[in-house]
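User:
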Amino acid sequence: MHDHIEEMGQNIVRRLHPNEPYKHSRLWIAKEIHDIFVEDKGTEATRCIKVRKVGLVNVMKGLGKMNELRLLVVACKMKVNDVEYSSASDYDSIFGYSKSYKDDVGYNSIFGYSKSYNDDVDYNSIFGFIKSYNDDVDLDYNDDVDLDNMDVNEDSLYLPNGLQYLYWYGYPFTCLPKEFHAKNLVGLKMHSSNIDQLWKAGEEKDLKKLKFIDFTHCKLRSLDIRLIQNLKRLKLECENLTELHVPVENIKFESLILNNSKLRTLDLSWAQNIIMLNVERCEYLVALHMPIEKFNLKSIYIKKL
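Assistant: Predicted structure:
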């Protein structure tokens, strides 16, 4: 049944312009995306795109005209400081959302695709995450990019300010672009990325709509969530993390996964409604402060090596 719904959604997207994919609102077929980027045919018609088998240079070029983009998923391969950030060959693990979280909450509910978008579309069905990536298209592209030999940085990348969901597997830069204000961002996932801070010093943004953050296997050293007033779930599996700046209060915060960090103290007295806490393999953690007046915690994971 699900396969039929998925196919129906894809047919709806492609029906109006079957031979002109650059006019489609959603793009998920690797060869079509590759051709659109290489031929510089990006348009404002595109609302959602999932990119693979496209080199970083073409990704940066192709996004320039997609001003109305709402959902962006990228999995590329590139090299920074002799370290390779590679898209995994198993796309089930990259896009297998429900497997990535230990709290058994699927990404369709974590990032609330249908709720985050005004058209109430089930994006899991529209894109057909797993099946649409099994096309095995052999494209002539160069995704093994050595950024050390290129005159590019995060500010060379254009990200539309209307983005609501950003997932970039292997993001190559150390921070987000200065001109990306992210005022509409609801979900942010930067898995296995080179990012070590959200923005450069003095470029912090007020992320009022951001609810879900996932920095797994990143180089993040510190994170300030004081301006993320509506944050619900935070996942930080970052071995270099030493600082977490927290708000005075956030009654909406529900879940924190903080594995392998170097934090020494963790103050959660502000998170009155936290339900799940995971601080496994946090060897440096010596102090944990929990809410006093209210205590809604249902699950806690504490395990040392």
